[in-house]
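Archive entry. Fields below.
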Amino acid sequence: MAIIAVENLHKRYGRTVAVDDVSFAVEEGEIFGILGPNGAGKTTTVESITGLRRPDRGSITVLGLDPQRDRAELRQRVGVQLQQSRLQEKITVSEALALYSSYYQHPADWRELLDGLGLADQRNTRYGKLSGGQQQRLSIALALVGSPTVAVLDELTTGLDPQARRDTWDLIEQVRASGVTIVLVTHFMDEAERLCDRLALIDSGRVAALDTPAGLIARAGREQRVRFTPSTPLDDALLTDLDEVTSVRRGGGQVIVTGTGDLLHALTSVLARNRIVAHDLRIEHASLDDAFVALTGRSHH
Amino acid sequence: MSTLMRTTLVEARLFLREPTAAILGVLSPTLILLALGAIPTLREPSEEYDGARFVELWAPSALVLGIGVIALQHIPGVLATYREHGVLRRLSTTPVHPVKLLLAQLLVGLAACVVAGALVVVTAWLVLDVPLPRHPWTFLAAFGVGFGAVLALGTLIAAVAPSSRVAGGLATLVYMVVMFAGGVFLPRFLMPDALVRMGDYTPPGVQGLLTAWSDHPGVLATVGAQSGSTRLVQLAIMAGVAIVAGAAAAKLFRWE
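PREDICTED_STRUCTURE:
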C-alpha cells in the first residue's frame, strides 16, 4: 500500500488556481521528489499532505490517515521541514531540540541527531547566530526529532553553499537508509537527479510527468551531444553522411555533433579511417534540465 | 517534564535574554516610584489627600505601568514576531497544541508581574515607609484577577493580530486605556469622577488594589471606600474579562 496517496487534488486561493489536478502515490522507503518551477503548486501540494491546508477537492491519505481529520496522529508520525520558517532568534540549538522532542510520544535521541548533523559544537549557540547551513541542518534535525515515518522536506538546500548542499544530500541518504520515507520538494534539477527515486514534475498545478529521473530524461529524447577539437581540418559532410548524426555545428574551434543511437562509436570509426585525432572529446547526455524544458516547454528559471 | 513546563521554561529564558522587556517591565515601576519618592512633597503627608501621601496613592499605578509593558507590549510583540518569522508555522507541524504556547507566555508574563509587584511592594515598604498590604489576601486576589485580565487581553491581541504592526497598534490602544484608567498618566484624584468610576471596573482595577493595600483614612477618602459587595463585583468583572479574553485567545489563535 502506498504511504501517501494523493488523488485529484485541487486548491485555489481566491481566483488563482494553485493546484489544478494533482495525483500521485509515494511508496514506502523511497525518496519521492516534487519538482517544478516557482509557483507551480509544489508547496500547496505538500501543505495539503501535511494538513496545513484544506484542499478544495480531491482526497489525500498519509499512512492511512486523513490529514485534516487525523491531524494529531499525523503530526506524531510526519516530520516537516518548511521553507521560510525560522526559530526564536535567541533559542539555543540544544534548547530547541530538547523542546521539540518533548512534543512527541516517541522522540529520537536529540543528542544523537546533534552529532549526526554536525551541530555538536553549536549546541549552545543561539539560532540567530548560526550560519545558513547550520540553521538548515537544525531545521532538518527538528523534522526528524519525533522519529517520523515520513519526512517532508521543502526546499531543502535553497541558500546553501555547494559544500553544505552536498553534506545535506549525504544526510538525506542516511535518513532514507534508516527507513524513513522522504518527500522532497525542490526546484534544483541536480538535487532531484542525485537524490530522488521517483519524481513528479509539476507544472501550472498539474503533474506534467511522473517517472524515475532516468525515465524522465529518456522521455526528453535520446539525443546526445559530442564535442571535440579535430587534429586536422575536417569536412562536415564526412560526419553528416552518418545515419547516427542529426546535426553538425562549429563553435569555439570545436566541432559539436548531435545524434542518436551509437553516436560515439560511429564518430570515432569515421575519424580513425580518416586519420583524424579528436582532442578534448566530451560527451554530453541530456540532463533533467533538458527533460524539464522538453516536458513543460520552457526553462525552469 | 511536561510539554507545558518545558515550553514555559524556554520562554522564560528567552524573556530574560530580552533585557529591554525585563528592565522596562520588571524594574521600571520600582525605579519610577523611588524617583518620585525622592521629591519631598510627594513622600510627605498632604492636606490635599486628607493626610495621605502621594507615593502611597500612586504605588499601585506604578505597578500598572510595569505590568502594562509586560502584558500589552512584550507578549503581543513576541507572538507577532513568532508569527511573522514562521516560528508558529513551524510549530503548527508538530503535535504541540497552540494553547500550550499561549499558556506558557501567560505564565512567564504572570511570573514577571509577580516579581515586578513584589519589588514595588517591598521597596515602597522599606524605602518609602508605605505599609505592606493591610489586607494581603484581598490584595493578592485583586492583583491576580486584575493583572490576569490585562495579561489575557494582551494574549488575545497576540493570538489574533496578523502582523506585528497590527499587534502593536491594538496593544498600544488597550495600553493607553489601561494606563489612563490605572491613573498612570494623571493621578486618579485629579480625574473627573465618572472616569474614576469607570477605571474602578476597568482592568486591572486600581481602586481594589489600593483599598486592599492601604487603610489610611486619607487614602480611603481620596479613592473612595469600597463596600464588600462592590469589591466582589469588581473582582468578578476582572475575573470574567480574564476568562473570556483567555478563552477567546485559545479559540481564535492563528498560526499564520
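CURATOR_NOTE: Chain A has eleven helices and 13 strands.
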